[in-house]
Design goal:
The chain has 19 helices and 24 strands. The protein is an alpha+beta fold and 626 residues long. Strands 5, 6, 7, 8, 9, 10 and 24 form a seven-stranded antiparallel sheet that branches. The protein has a six-stranded mixed sheet with strand order 12-13-14-17-18-23, with helices on both faces. Helix 1 runs antiparallel to helix 3, helix 1 runs parallel beside helix 4 and helix 8 packs parallel to helix 9.
Length: 626
Amino acid sequence: MNVSVRFSVLLFTCLSIAMPVGSSPSIDQEYKAVLWPIAQRIHEYYFEEISPDTLMQAAARGLFAAMDPASEYEINTDAMGTSPNPRKLLASRFTMLMQVARSLDEKAFYHTPADTLVRFGIAGMMQILDPYSVFLEKRNLDNFNIQTQGKYGGLGFRIQVVRPDSAIAVWSLLHDDTPAARAGIKSGDLILEIDGESTKDMSAGDAADKMRGDPGTSVTLTLQRAGVQDLFDLSVVREEVKMGSISVETLFPDSTGYVKLDRFQRNCSAEMRDALLSLRAQGMQRIIFDLRGNGGGYLDEAVNIVDLFLPEERMVVFTAGRAFRDTTKYLTSKPAPFADEPLVVLVNGGSASASEIVAGAIQDWDRGLVLGSTTVGKGSVQQVVNIDEYSELKLTMAAWHTPSGRSIDKRMRKDSTLVSDPETAFHTKILERVVRGGGAITPDVEGTTRQGNRLWWQLNGFSSLNNQFFYYARQYRVAHPELTRAFRANESTFNEFRSFTQQRDFEYVSEAEAHVEELKEMAQEDDFEELGDSIAQLIEQIDTAEERHWQDNKDLILWRLTYAILEKAYGVYHAESYNAEVDPQVLKARALLANPLDYEHWFQVEEIGTGSEDAVAQDDESVNAE
């Protein structure tokens, strides 16, 4: 065996460090408990075969990424022995790698804890896989389980860091029956302390970790509330919080039913069925199924939802991968309770995985129209492999294909035989319309989305975390006790909001103004005083243009103000119901469904998505569930 591990002279110095007995796992324990099992699972189950040498070299690169930059290594696998048995070869290579890990653990001048070193090795292996294969430990595992299981031990609200307070904001309550809601916490409250510990400069992730916990235990929050002069404490007992899959369901006056599904978690298909049955009982004749921003979840739930719309024994999706010797086919299994209503499925650049399976099946069977913008293009199947009590490996094991046979994946390795060539034409199952693979789900009909300029981004605090809409909405009900659920922002609200932002020292800086400020600095540095008058005139013209930006964004600002104020006063469901009434894509879908000739016309288009382009996805604020 020819193995050479070279350190710089300084790093090769051996140190004798007294470590507390039982303070942390040894390198051998961490290696055998975590890194080696992950290497085995990748080698056995990953959808593309990865040789033992490649996998071992990737892990070695990861190990050395934890070292001082002067550290070097060389592992010559060509001179090592080989074996016709891939498992034995893998064991041989990783036995050798464990020796390298021991050397780093024992001899590196700057010591890296064993658990950290091993996780660098794991990160090295993950880097050669597709972006959907991930190693999940405590926090990320908790977040993953929240999204898929729809429940967790906590308080029941979403949080986000806000500036300039440097506090944790209660961004929204999940619903009215959470522990937080029953304890009196309100959307818009600022959390200044958690069990006596200041939240100043605390990340949203750290705050969420401190507030989650075992059901039955309590946590004390110190809150600041609009309209309340003094800080006050609330103690909340943690419970198992359940998150619904459906954010809103409503029946419009034109008898069109609308359901927005946020995630494919356990039992979401039953929720979907119940929602549609309820809407039908109210007179529903047409369906809009909104999957925008839905990043996916359980495959079987996606199949069960398609079962609501397609006759039995229809292909929904099939998977193929190296570890699965036979293709796995998923078919509808029951008579469809909603097989006849005209159907539009809404998608956007945030619709992925299970959302694409549903949209692809509806499109390939010519059951309904897909409207919106091009989806993510995540055509791979991940399965969760348990590693130990605190960690799991979410590993890509197969690619999935729509009923027409196309793979829509955009992010797997393009040399994969499981991914469709974008130039390959497939055909829908009934009308034989042309669809193409390798490029996500392309909608039948392009949607229109809300578009904002630089002013819009600054008001939302996307970079600064100083969200003007949040601060205005949290105090609005205090300033306007006459507020009702019928509230809609108007010209008076718009003007009051502008005054509010000025009082908070918000200053809109357009791109042109930013460049002029740079020009002023350069002129001062280079003594070009004669440019002063010209720059002043330019600034005056820019001020006029910036005022136009406020007017250009007025409709968008009024919509955002209405949504934010209704959410803070009456909850997410009421705000989402309002949004469904005015959403441009929902309005377009309603118009399409209301005109049978227009609806049928789109099924006559020979190739789906001809001439369409990706559109900007709807605004999706990043928040943490607590």
